[in-house]
Amino acid sequence: VDSPLKSWSGLAGYRFPDPAYGSEGLGEMDEVRRTDGGKHYLLAWVGSLFHLYTYLRGYEEALIDVAEESTGYFQLLDRIIEFLVARIRLLGRRGVDGILISDDWGTQLDVLINPETWRRVFQPRYRRILEEMHRAGALAHFHTCGHTLPILPDLIDCGFDEINPQVPTMDIQRLRPLFLDRVCIRPDLDRQQTLVSGTPEEVQRHVEETFAAFRSRCGGYIGHIPIEMNVSPQNAEAMMRAYREARFEEGRDR
Q1: Alpha-carbon distance 73 to 65, whole Å?
Q2: Could you please report the per-residue DSSP string of 142-195?
Q3: What is the mean pLDDT of residues 208-236?
Q4: What are the angstrom distances between the C-alpha of 254 and each of 161, 176, 178?
Q5: What is the C-alpha separation between 146 and 156, in angstroms, rounded?
Q6: Is the pLDDT of residue 118 over 70?
Q7: Is-contact 42 100, C-beta < 8 A?
């Protein structure tokens, strides 16, 4: 409805919600895992850092804070991290396999803020969050939309086990050497054009080309199938068929 911390005067008395809020859903998760027999990888989303900051401050105010390093800026970021860490520990006690954090750091054309500022302010904070994920016994996952090529090497250096970038906004050939044999990639497919308005043949070719760019026995590849409301059943089937047929080839894939 509104951003509660548009004025810094409210920061000192602002109460974050209980990190365990919504934890009744964990009982349902436990039941699903019990009936599943642990056959599937259990990935839990813990939230966001910068998105949550923008919700609390307002988007324009948040960007001004980044530029001016306003009073309260670092304090609020670190309070959000405390909240996320508490939720990570809660998930860790339930034995999840992986924990996901997400922040969309790119526009269609470039990184949202100056990459040097991102490295100085946000990279060490993501490392803190990631370390807590590993301490909880989970693999660390990161999702980010938009053109994030300038900071992807830094995200990889943080130590995330898997990264889900919006590949179609960037040059796929420039992305390949960043990930190959270094970190598992879950490449986003083209949800803006190909999956929505392409033919099933174009969709299948798109999946095959993406797989060919990143496949590696060492680095890891997760076939991500985004089936949203504007994706036809025929294109969803084409995606699934392409991944079922995808194979590593001896001698070509390390």
Answers
A1: 6
A2: EEE-S--GGGHHHHHHHT-SEEEE-GGGS-HHHHHHHHTTTSEE-----TTTHH
A3: 88
A4: 18, 14, 15
A5: 16
A6: yes
A7: no
Please give the mean pLDDT across all residues of the chain: 92
Locus of tokens 């998930």: 91
Q: Which amino acid is at 253?
A: D
Phi, psi of 162, rounded to the nearest 5 degrees: -150, 140
Give the integer Cα–Cα distance in Å for 81 and 50.
Answer: 10
Confidence check: pLDDT of 253 > 80: no
Query: Which of 33-42, 71-80, 144-153 is the least confident region?
Result: 33-42
Rounded Cα distance, 203 and 209, in Å: 10
Q: Give the span between the Cα atoms of 91 and 93, in whole angstroms.
A: 5
In the structure encoding, which two tokens stand for residue 145, read together? Answer: 């939309």
User: At 166, which amino acid appears?
Assistant: Q
Residues 6 and 61 sit within 8 Å (Cβ to Cβ): yes
What pLDDT, on a 0 to 100 scale, did the predictor assign at position 1? Answer: 80
What one-letter code names the amino acid at 234? Q
